[in-house]
Inverse folding.
């Protein structure tokens, strides 16, 4: 029997289970590329591996492998073609590219390159708060608690307010920069203006500062729960994602503390 006949039933069953129609439609496109006009039983593991290896990119290869495995599982449970080899279909692993992360040296170089008080304040806020670019641009004077050493972030990506820490240098600069003002934007800069400032200083991107803030906090003994709360992440997976590069270093530090 031709693969197309099975694909129609596969798609119908998938949708009846309440799964996303767009997903099964994409799977069927890939499976048609694999099987063409051939009989479903003519598709082999060897041919499938060659097809996966010929993918234009790793994400495409991953999507193709998912399609084959999903159809193979369905065929096994629904008297479909003999694709008993589906469990042996390899799922390609995405290449992990290290993400730029600001270091203490980057922070010091950026400070050295500043010439104005507001520029130094931007760098101190990026280094001590872990704020997103849009959050940094929106800070209002009323959001800052200099006595408590924190800034309130009322509008966040997750639509839930949170507080972020302010370092002592950031508190001092805020106090000087605000002066007698009681309200209004703290920096008076758009997100684009902040990005241009960082380029002029030869400093890393705002998101690299956010990662650097998280890494440095963990290195200094701040718990993952506190980092997650201050960053406004809904899942601990984000902490792991941003700090994977230093996970081994952090583990060794913890063991050393317990062995003293």
């Amino acid at each position: 029997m031709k693969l197309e006949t099975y694909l129609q039933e596969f798609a119908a069953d998938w949708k009846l289970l309440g799964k996303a129609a767009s997903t099964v439609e994409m799977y069927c496109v890939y499976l048609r590329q694999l099987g063409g006009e051939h009989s479903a039983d003519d598709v082999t593991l060897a041919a499938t591996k060659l097809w996966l290896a010929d993918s234009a990119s790793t994400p495409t290869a991953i999507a193709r492998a998912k399609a084959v495995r999903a159809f193979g599982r369905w065929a096994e449970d629904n008297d479909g073609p003999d694709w008993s080899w589906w469990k042996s279909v390899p799922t390609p692993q995405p290449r992990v590219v290290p993400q730029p992360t600001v270091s203490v040296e980057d922070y010091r170089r950026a400070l050295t390159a500043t010439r104005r008080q507001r520029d130094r304040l931007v760098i101190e806020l990026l280094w001590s708060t872990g704020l997103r670019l849009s959050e940094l641009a929106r800070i209002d004077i009323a959001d800052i608690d200099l006595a408590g050493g924190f800034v309130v972030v009322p509008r966040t990506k997750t639509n839930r307010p949170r507080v972020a820490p302010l370092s002592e240098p950031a508190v001092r600069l805020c106090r000087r920069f605000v002066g007698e003002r009681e309200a209004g934007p703290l920096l008076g800069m758009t997100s684009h203006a902040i990005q241009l400032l960082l380029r002029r200083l030869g400093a890393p991107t705002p998101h690299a500062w956010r990662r650097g803030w998280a890494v440095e906090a963990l290195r200094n003994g701040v718990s993952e729960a506190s980092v997650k709360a201050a960053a406004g992440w809904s899942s601990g997976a984000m902490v792991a994602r941003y700090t994977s590069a230093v996970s081994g270093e952090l583990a060794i530090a913890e063991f050393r503390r317990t062995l003293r």
